[in-house]
Amino acid sequence: MKFSRLLVLCEANICRSPLAASLLQKLTTARVDSAGLTARPDDPADPVYLHMAQTLGLDLSHHRSKPVDSRLLAGADLILVMTGGHKRRLSERYPQFSGKIMLLGHWIDDGISISDPHRKSVDAYQQVFKQIRDACDLWAAKL
Fold this sequence. Notes:
By secondary structure, this protein is α/β, with parallel strands linked by helices. It contains five helices and four strands. Strands 2-1-3-4 form a four-stranded parallel β-sheet, with helices on both faces. The protein starts with a strand and ends with a helix.
């Protein structure tokens, strides 16, 4: 199956999902969007990831968060989430889309959850940044 429309989800849509969406957009021909399970509308990207993304040639300065809804989910061929908890909550809330939800970290060590670095140490941000970069590289190779 060809996945031409991807949706990447995290909690607030300010750290992990905008970074992963931007990176997947760069690495694939797919159209990639992002949203958050508990996102407030129009929050900017986390300043730490704004800077880190620039090291990969990515510009998150125009990113604004948005909450996930059924329209976004219906428009995606593949929905990538950060944690098993996200997958469970999303499947419970929108069971009709459960078959197309997978972990972003699916291809790393039989599937890893990518934790939220928001308001944690720079080391935590860097660790999650590497996990997202590695996961996106692996997804790009599969897509």
